[in-house]
Amino acid sequence: MQSFAELLDRLVYTTARNAKLKLLEDYFRATPDPDRGWALSALTDGLPLRLPIRKTLATILAPHVDPLLYRLSRDYVGDTAETVSLLWPDARLNEPPPRISDVVAEVSAASSREFPRVLESLLGRLDVKGRFALLKLLSGALRVGVSARLAKTAIAQTFGREVEEIEEVWHAVSAPYADMFAWLEGRGVRPDPGRKATFRPVMLAHPIEDGDWQSFAPQDVAAEWKWDGIRVQLSARPGDVRLFSRAGDDVSTAFPDIVQAFAHTQGVLDGELLVLRQGVVASFNDLQQRLNRKTVTGRMLQDYPAHIRLYDILFDGNEDVRTLSFIERRQHLEAWYERFRPSLADVSALVPFAAFAELESKWQLARENGIEGLMLKRKASPYLAGRPKGHWYKWKRAALTIDCVLMYAQRGSGKRSSYYSDYTFGVWKTPDELVPVGKAYSGFTDEELLRLDRWIRTNTVERFGPVRQVKPGLVLEIAFDAVQTSSRHKSGLALRFPRVHRIRWDKPVQEAETLDAVKALVPS
Amino acid sequence: MQKSRIESWLYPTDRGLYCEPGQFHIDPHLPVDRAVITHGHGDHARSGHGAVLATHETIEIMKVRYGADCAGSFAAANGGQTINGVAVRLVPAGHILGSAQIVLDWQGTRAVVSGDYKRSPDPTCAPFELVPCDLFVTEATFGLPVFRHEPAEREAHRLVASLAANPERTHLLGAYNLGKCQRMIALVRQAGYHRPVYLHGGLRALCDLYVRLGVDLGDLRNVTDSEPAELKGALVLCPPGALSDRWSRRLADPLTCYASGWMRVKGRASQHGVELPLVVSDHCDWPELLRTIEETGAEEIWVTHGREDALVHQIGLMGRRGRALALVGFEDEGD
Ligand SMILES: [Zn+2]
Ligand SMILES: [Zn+2]
User: A45 at the B interface (CB within 8 A)?
Assistant: First the structure.
């Protein structure tokens, strides 16, 4: 527990991705089984322990701390678990500190009546960092800025593997992953992911660049519309259907309708999750209503009907077809669809073209809702995990741009922590009132960042912690993919994927866009 | 609350704590004719007084910070002196170099004004000396039970271990320029770190003074005189305010460290963007405050700077009379 506690303590304060990876790798290398497995479980899916921790803490703390002193402390610290870890009397250290595996064993063996006593005994054997780690472990959410994906990446790097290999076996193993570590250390066989509906790493596209066009002829590539939804993977086996995000998060519970529609199928398919009404793709906003829901009401299913537009197949039944070419897989996909005919799904059509000029005119005209542009895929390419170069291209519809006024700037994180690199910008609601419409963190060079930083420091009118409000004096030309209505911003609008397109040092702020003009860009 | 006997001769005024028969103020924040100063920190030692009584070290610190003519006259405290019939003795407070508690004896009653103090060991100053008394004036910078400092030696070892584990990263350590800075250097030396330590310009003068007053700090160099390559993997100290300054950009992939009692609380540490927080303080933590109050045997405790409400409540629980002394001008020194 001590080394895990030290790890969490360091992760809390580490912002740079590489520094986090280093801490995690050092930990996984130095820690034996099964402790490292429980730690990995805590960092990814959460330990399988759910207990009435809040209520219990109040009970066991009462004899140790005066109520007024507790309240003043809690107000100052701001977090209950941290306050308790700081206030708990220090261990007399006549007993060795528990290991994570001891914690898991003692807590899972305890009845809810015994739990307060078990928790008290564990706290009594730990120092302040250990107590904090224990309470975070038991509360289910570590919140140390490590995603499941990052933890798996650290495992992969520790043992000289690719993260995709870890993800392949992930759903076939469970905490504390002794079989996975045995395989990684060459002591055991690879856990077989074939038994359950599992996630397979997805293939990603690069934005097309001018030079790419020379590298293929029109007959070498297939074109599809690029749908404005969410990339998902549907993995189905008899009795087990799951929907995964492209990062491998299981999102099945939010989409029981999709799971139901594929219950009779078998295979692993790649597609775009959309909200579809009478065959028309609804806005991304509508899709967001369905995301991140723990419970889905019948009303939601009706108002925001989900749909998958399939465009690739990784497993046809049990057959791994990833090594086949795109064209061969396409034949498998169409045959698979004919065989199962799942409702709430269709196959994304290919866009026919003879010459690139023809394709370009189709691309130019693609302004309807739900289409972001075109995808170009090499007909001969196999399905490759990750973002391999030279196989799949996304050709996004030209971004829209508007001139906005810089309003607030915030310090960045990691490498950028001494620069003001996160910008909130707005447009004119009236000739003298700006309202924010979005935030951008990217789209400028390092030199521009330096100059922006200098400008912000000399034009600050107020400071709130890491945020500076600046006087309206700088126009940012912001590129974005779409405008949506939003209740989050005071302006009632939000930009999708905003980034700084150009910094208009030259432009007077009065010439920036008005709110009414931006409103007119919302698709009706 | 009934007026105590002591308050007839020692009481707070708008210039600071005043000893009426002695006709002097202790740590006044506005200029006075006669001042007794506990230690050199800015919220205790100010310029512009007539006559100043303080330890030799505190006087030297004041001269470095404010100039040689920052007071009309200086008298270095010796074993004991009498001012207008009040016996005045300065005994070590263990806070920073030269820091002293002011012990006042008048007509059979004793008051101890401790200034700032700590009980844990510090290689750069004399240890706190306990003086039994009737009235004890204590600070409450860390006056909440969540504050328990780590052993400073252990924190110094963590820093040295991090230097060894990250040889490509410059360790930028924020530390208050008087006391904390020199203590951290002395601690890493004790922990076996003997490479040069690099200083931000704002730390140089007081480090030089410590060395002149006999505190060994090893090889100290200026950041401004050093090649960027030399600073890679090195230990660099700067005032806390300079941590997120543009100043730090010349350093190779800096790993930000901060030595302060506030680092005990995660929210405070993240606020400063600190990657390696070190819980080292020159003030008492909560258990040390309670222990000291207990050991002085004082019936009456006056509490200054910090979270007075919690400590005054606790003093009540301990069966003593506690009072928040709302003296203006004292503040958290970034410690
Ligand atoms: Zn002080
Ligand atoms: Zn002070």
Answer: no
CATH number at residue B220: 3.40.50
Residue B310 maps to a domain: yes
- Kindly report the length of chain A: 524
B-proximal residues of A, 179-238, CB under 8 Å: none
B274 to chain A, any CB pair closer than 8 A? The answer is: yes
Same domain, B175 and B132: no
Closest Cα in chain A to B317 = A66
Q: ipTM of this predicted complex?
A: 0.91
Q: Tell how far the Cα of B268 is from the centroid of ligand 2, in angstroms.
A: 19
**B225 shares a domain with B100:** no
- Of residues A68, A77, A90, nearest to B265 (C-beta): A77
In this structure, are B27 and B106 located in the same domain? yes
Residue B329 counted as domain residue: no
Residues B161, B140, single domain; the answer is no
User: What pTM does this model have?
Assistant: 0.67
Residue B79 Cα to ligand 1 middle (Å) = 22
Instruction: Determine contact: A68 vs chain B, CB below 8 A.
Output: yes
Same domain, residue pair B87 and B104 = yes
Which domains are seen in chain A, by residue range?
2-139 (1.10.3260.10), 206-396 (3.30.470.30), 400-519 (2.40.50.140)
> Ranked by mean pLDDT, which of A138-152, A298-312, A356-370 comes out on top?
A298-312
In which domain, by residue range, is B239 found? 152-278
In total, how many domains does chain B have? Answer: 2
**Residues pairing with A129 in the sheet:** none
Measured between CA atoms, the residue of chain A closest to residue B253 is: A415
Q: What is the model's pLDDT at position A369?
A: 60
Give A237-306 as a DSSP string. ETTEEEEEETT--B-GGG-HHHHHHTTT--EEEEEEEEEEETTEEPPHHHHHTTTT-SS--HHHHHHS-E
How many CB atoms are closer than 10 A to CB A284? 19
In sequence order, the 6+-apart residues with CB closer than 8 A to the CB of A325 are A379, A380, A381, A382
Beta-carbon separation of B144 and A76 below 8 A: yes
> What is the pairing mode between strands B255-259 and B171-174?
parallel
The CA distance from A344 to the nearest CA of chain B, in Å, is 47
A313 phi and psi, to 5 degrees?
-135, 135
